[in-house]
Amino acid sequence: MKVTGLRLRQRDGVTCGPSVAVLAGALLDPRRGAVLFDPRSGQALFAAEQGRVHAEVNVLWPRRLGTTPLGLTRAMTAAGATAGVPYRWRLSRGRCDRLTDVLAAVHNHRPVAMLIGRVVPRHWVLIVEAAGDTVECYEPSSGAMRRVAIADVRRGRLSGLGYPLPFAFIVPCSNV
User: Model-level pTM greater than 0.90?
Assistant: First the structure.
């Protein structure tokens, strides 16, 4: 599925996580993707799905604070259910993080969510592709795809995504 050029944007300032989960589900399930990527109805469906996912995963956590790693893990697992892809979350390991699980997942066409920020975690993006020494990330506030060097992920020097430092990843479980 081609994500570039779709410009699917988060509907408000706190639905980056649900946006990432909805897009991940569309990438994992071609039938869901065909509906979401329809130029006539995709934007409205994307906005509605963000609201539904946000309400489902933020039962106790205040929605105005965004989505927790555990909440987004549940959303990603639900999104990947039709493809049989359960997810788990893990912290970033900084410079010593080889990102082996992240890169293996993306090479196997399984998107990976990345929680980024400065001093505190603030924003979710979705890694959808890896080629050479870069990864391509969906950035939901702009709806754009951004290419980032893998070395910059490790060093906490992300650019073009709004924040420089990765805090956590949501990756498929290793037994998948």
Answer: yes
